[in-house]
């Protein structure tokens, strides 16, 4: 069996430290799907499978990936190590794993020393969804189809925000 799953034409690679991150990161995948972004999802832990992570990250650009989204909890070094292994933009999703309500994960990602950045999102579902949108916005800089999808997504969201089912006049 291959070390990790690859998807033809994938523009975004979603990595997570454990399958236990999937209930949250499934929202990233669903949002990328909504935005029409081909992506691939893998569990590749920085500490449990460091050589697999190196192989994935060092071949990411040549395989056509534009952005990597990395989710981890606890001492969440996955995003930082991935950022060290590729110059592709890394978006970090801190998981609320088992203690400190995810503050440990947030600080592990946000407090990268200078030189190797990780663009860190909010803890949990909000960050998982925003990582997908931000990845799309990065890709939209050079892809008109994705740009249209991002604009449509934002327009739908604005319309939905306005609705108040059951309230007078709505
Ligand atoms: C991290 O430790 C994972 O990203 C996960 O958030 C957390 C717990 O992992 P499991 O012990 O559930 O596999 O590496």
Helix/strand layout:
Elements: E1 12-16, H1 22-34, E2 39-43, H2 50-59, E3 67-73, H3 78-85, E4 90-95, H4 103-110, E5 119-120, H5 125-140, H6 144-162
Parallel strand pairs: 1-2, 1-3, 3-4, 4-5
Helix pairs in contact: 1-5, 2-3, 5-6
In percent, how much strand structure appears in the residues?
5-15%
* General form: globular
Question: What oligomeric state do these chains adopt?
Answer: single chain
**Based on helices, strands and strand pairing, what is the structural class?**
alpha/beta
Helix-strand pattern, N to C? EHEHEHEHEHH
If you compute it from the alpha carbons, what radius of gyration comes out, rounded to the nearest whole angstrom?
A: 17 Å
Helical element count? 6
Overall pLDDT level: 96
How many β-strand runs? 5
For the biggest sheet, the summary is: 5 strands, parallel
Identify the bound ligands. Answer: 5-O-phosphono-beta-D-ribofuranose
Measured between the Cα atoms of the first and last residue, the distance is: 55 Å
| Helix-residue proportion | 40-55%
Q: Which strand order does the major sheet show? A: 2-1-3-4-5
Uncertain stretches of 5 or more adjacent residues: none
